[in-house]
Automatic annotation (TrEMBL):
This is LysR family transcriptional regulator. Pfam families: HTH_1, LysR_substrate. InterPro entries: LysR_HTH_N, LysR_subst-bd, WH-like_DNA-bd_sf, WH_DNA-bd_sf. One of its GO terms (molecular function) is transcription cis-regulatory region binding. The lineage of its organism: Bacteria, Bacillati, Chloroflexota, Ktedonobacteria, Ktedonobacterales. It comes from Ktedonospora formicarum. Belongs to the LysR transcriptional regulatory family. PROSITE patterns: HTH_LYSR. Keywords: DNA-binding, Transcription, Transcription regulation. Residues 1-58 form the HTH lysR-type domain.
Amino acid sequence: MNLQNLRIFLKVAELEHVTRASEELHLSQPAVTKTIQSLEQEIHLKLLERQGRRIVLTHAGRVLKEYAFQIFALEREMEDELTALRDVEGGEVRLAFNRTAGVYLLPLVVSRFRARYPQVTLHISILNSPEIVQALLNWQLDFGLVESESSLCPAELYVEMTTRDELILVVSPTHKWSKVQVLPIAALGQGELIMREEESVIRGMIEQALDRHGVRMHSLFTLTDNEAVKQMVMSGVGAAIISAFSVQRELMRGELVHVPVSNLDLRPRLSLMRREDKLLSPAARAFCSVLSPILEHGLETIRGLALEGE
């Protein structure tokens, strides 16, 4: 099978759109269409079918897409290994962090890595944890940091290292809970909480914890972004249970107050995962060596940065 034809098919499969694929590949639309038809004739199977104005992959198309991901991931590994033989500081790293770690941990990691390995190209994505797991399974990443317990890691993936976050209740200094020594967990059902969307892993953890204590949550409203939640709380709109990573600077400055909650101990695990059968390039291994001590001292590292900012 011609690899260039397979590369063209993969772009069409990713975008599910022939015209956009042709534009990204700098090819004419008829040329892309002809390539797909040639592949279909070669394997005697239909790869695409039309549903109204859009195209979708057939079962054969989905199978070929998965293998194409693996083939080109292996091709990138080969190129990285050959590059490393020429220049140990060259190569590329493809990684993804979940949204909280991507905002509050990743900049520190990248800054330290770039200082030591300026020639390495980084391809970084900020995704939800389920999206990262799927991208790892599809051979699209070298590794990804996800909010997940090691026991929930898919069989094809390997947990390289882990750290713990902490979920804490925060309010503004003017909020009615700001002077409370320890808040009864039942108070969290009073409609004061600003919550993330229902699909959020963090929201799921909070709801499960409250359910265990017979507390039914009534949220004030929901937002899809941690920073938006934080700004709302700082403005005195309501309270939030949020990642301790995300609020260290505001706690140091007195812009937010941490309110302990009785019987509530939420410490989600952050796991750095990769495919067990994927060979990491020297560049990817170097990135792991920079990331490892930062993850090992995760929350302490962020607190230290907050103190430096003061």
